[in-house]
Amino acid sequence: MSNSIVPLNKEIGNNVVISFKNMKRQTFDFSYEIMEYILAKANFNLAKKLYFTCKYFPYKIRLFLIDNLEYCDGIVLTNLSKELEFQNTVNPADFNDRVWLGDTIMTDYDNIILWIPKIERCPIRGLKIVKGFLSWNEFKILTKDGKVERLCIEKVVDSDGNMIAIEDICACVPNLYELW
């Protein structure tokens, strides 16, 4: 009976929590260098697929994948096709792992400033920051991958408080086609 397959308990339902605790490294037929190359070059959608297909990738990448980061009355994280809603303020410092933002950020400055230290990768296509303005360094962190297509911000300022020229902002986001 110990070798038989036991069906999952139906009482668990949707309350399954995935944890990085006690994960073991998986051995591969590929060399470590090839796996490192895959990890370095993976886009967000590929990383999501790798997370589901192999236990090695969540253990090795150690990033919390977030499709969309939105703030209205509470934080809404769309993660791996599921919406996680938090009515109270979420403190990103409570996340043990760094985050990989995949598609869109729609929030205000007070919230995004809490997330910026946790961002490891940010190949977002949409960035909307309301009620506040970004510093030049914060803007470069959010647009480092250069994939932003839609941009809605009040202004970007340098360390002296001077506004950054629109030409410099557009140079950081070469794929931009909507600017509000």
Question: Would you mind describing this structure in some detail?
Answer:
With 180 residues, this protein is of the alpha/beta class. The protein has six helices and ten strands, in the order H-H-H-E-E-E-E-H-E-E-E-H-E-E-H-E. The protein has helices at residues 32-41, 44-53, 56-61, 109-115, 136-142, 166-172; strands at residues 63-71, 75-79, 82-86, 98-108, 119-121, 126-130, 134-135, 150-152, 156-157, 178-179. The protein is elongated, with a radius of gyration of 19 Å. The termini are far apart.
How are the elements arranged and paired?
Layout: H1 32-41, H2 44-53, H3 56-61, E1 63-71, E2 75-79, E3 82-86, E4 98-108, H4 109-115, E5 119-121, E6 126-130, E7 134-135, H5 136-142, E8 150-152, E9 156-157, H6 166-172, E10 178-179
Parallel strand pairs: 1-4, 4-5, 4-6, 6-8, 7-9, 8-10
Antiparallel strand pairs: 1-2, 2-3
* Terminal Cα span: 64 Å
Q: Report the biggest beta sheet as strand number plus sense, adding barrel if it closes.
A: 8 strands, mixed
By DSSP, the count of extended strands is 10
Mean pLDDT: 76
Instruction: Tell me what portion of residues adopts beta-strand conformation.
Output: 25-35%
Helical amount among residues, as a percent range? 25-40%
Please, how many domains? 1
- Class by alpha and beta content: alpha/beta
Rg to the nearest angstrom? Answer: 19 Å
Run of helices and strands? HHHEEEEHEEEHEEHE
Q: What best-fitting shape do the alpha-carbon axes yield?
A: elongated
Q: How many distinct helices?
A: 6
Low-pLDDT stretches: 1-13
